[in-house]
Fold:
Amino acid sequence: DAKTTQPPSMDCAEGRAANLPCNHSTISGNEYVYWYRQIHSQGPQYIIHGLKNNETNEMASLIITEDRKSSTLILPHATLRDTAVYYCIVPNQGGKLIFGQGTELSVKP
Amino acid sequence: SAVISQKPSRDICQRGTSLTIQCQVDSQVTMMFWYRQQPGQSLTLIATANQGSEATYESGFVIDKFPISRPNLTFSTLTVSNMSPEDSSIYLCSVDGWGNTEAFFGQGTRLTVV
Structure:
């Protein structure tokens, strides 16, 4: 079973920030949190990952709570091309990615 | 990064037949995985393809139905055997993604069984 829980869907206005939450209350001290997204009819695409510190790259920011039991992916200026299913994943031993249902983000004009 | 090529990208097959899907990576990788994505669903891990040994299957998946080969560190195949319409899915190959490294995915093979 997936070790994370996410809301099934969210809407966001184009140009606004999209904040996608994820709960991972059973995460252990050395496990990373990864975010991937899947645009329709494509393979999943890596976005960002982190351990305990907040992370930022050219695609997004990742905010991890101090107790590490939850995190938020932030797309600072969402565009229509960001419409996708977003997956928050804590890999199992051996690198297995167990996908939950993810959050279907719809960016609207 | 790793670039993954999957072949075929799509196929329509008759029930009772088998299809072999190829996954080629442009660099040597330790871990390779096969996933299935049924229509409207999330990805489900089928198995870990181990180089030089038998694949490790997840619960609900068996070798007779989904035989996997991993002859070297850049290539793997997944065969979907004795297909039925319920096998109609997208099958995806992925590599690595452990510890502090991200996973990469192929674009998938869209299989329709008629």
